[in-house]
Design goal:
- It is a single chain.
- By secondary structure, the chain is an alpha/beta fold.
- The protein has one domain: Rossmann fold (3-Layer(aba) Sandwich).
- It has helices spanning 13-29, 35-41, 61-67, 78-87, 123-136, 156-165, 195-204; strands spanning 2-7, 49-53, 70-75, 90-95, 108-114, 137-148, 174-179, 186-191, 207-215, 225-232.
- The protein has an 8-stranded mixed sheet, with helices on both faces. It has a two-stranded antiparallel sheet with strand order 7-8.
- Strand 2, helix 3 (61-67) and strand 3 form a beta-alpha-beta unit.
- Helix 1 (13-29) packs parallel to helix 4 (78-87).
- The longest helix is centred in the N-terminal third of the chain and has 17 residues, at 13-29.
- It is globular.
- 39% of the residues are buried.
Length: 237
């Protein structure tokens, strides 16, 4: 049996506290892996090293461990990592801010980065996190990355109003989304993406887009998630 949590000092205390606070509630309500993620995991070779960036409660890391001999989960929240540790016997867990991923260059075959990039405040930091994904990927490695759409059913009207009225320092797309389950009322930072902005940030991070899909998971009318498959863009491309 091997369990390991490596702690990093490069963590934003405010965001870590938020996710620590909701960790148990999050785990109780986020057990089923997404179909798109399972499809991606099933394409990974069994001998490959896969990294789940912002692994949360492990709902996608668990099938990674079942599929591959080597898997690593990274998250900002100690509480979420403790939840994962109780579920999985053979896995490496890293406690770290994913703007600076504590892994060596060109060492990872596959990366999952699901519904978490949008929780990083500041476009420069989000792009830096994507560059970290590129850095750790092998030349033939691949990553599945997803973000929430700005124009989904739930927030569309709110952002249409902000289009004409927003002033100040906040980026257009920034929003606090409250976790209101199990009696909690906790604001979480989100930056909801347009498809154009998502593509732009991926390009700025020198990631080659293999495929991008508009996906409805909870929305009925408008896309609520963008999923993209990317590879490391080589210097000559």
């Amino acid at each position: 049996m091997y369990r390991n949590i490596t702690m990093s000092n490069d963590c934003a205390d405010e965001f870590e506290k938020t996710w620590d606070t909701i960790a148990q509630s999050f785990d109780a309500t986020r057990r089923k892996p997404w179909k798109k993620c399972i499809e991606f995991i099933n394409t990974i070779a069994k001998e490959d090293l896969v990294v789940d960036v912002c692994c949360g409660n492990g709902r996608h890391l668990i099938p990674c461990v079942k599929r591959c001999k080597k898997a690593i989960g990274i998250d900002l929240s100690r509480e979420l990592l403790s939840i994962v540790q109780k579920k999985l016997d053979v896995v490496n867990l890293l406690h770290s801010n994913v703007v600076h991923i504590p892994l060596k260059c060109n060492t990872v075959d596959a990366v999952l980065y699901i519904a978490s990039l949008h929780n990083i405040k500041g476009r420069d930091r989000r792009i830096q996190s994507l560059r970290e994904v590129r850095r750790i990927l092998k030349n033939d490695g691949k990553a599945l990355i997803s973000v929430w759409s700005r124009w989904q059913d739930r927030y569309r009207t709110q952002f249409l109003k902000k289009w004409f009225t927003q002033t100040g320092q906040a980026e257009f797309g920034d929003i606090d989304i409250y976790w209101r389950q199990h009696g909690l009322d906790i604001p979480r930072f989100y930056h909801l993406y347009s498809k154009r902005e998502f593509l732009s940030d991926l390009h700025k991070a020198d990631l080659k887009i293999i495929d991008i899909q508009d996906v409805k998971i909870h929305s009925e009318k408008y896309t609520d998630n963008y999923f993209t498959m990317v590879k490391k863009k080589k210097s000559q491309e």
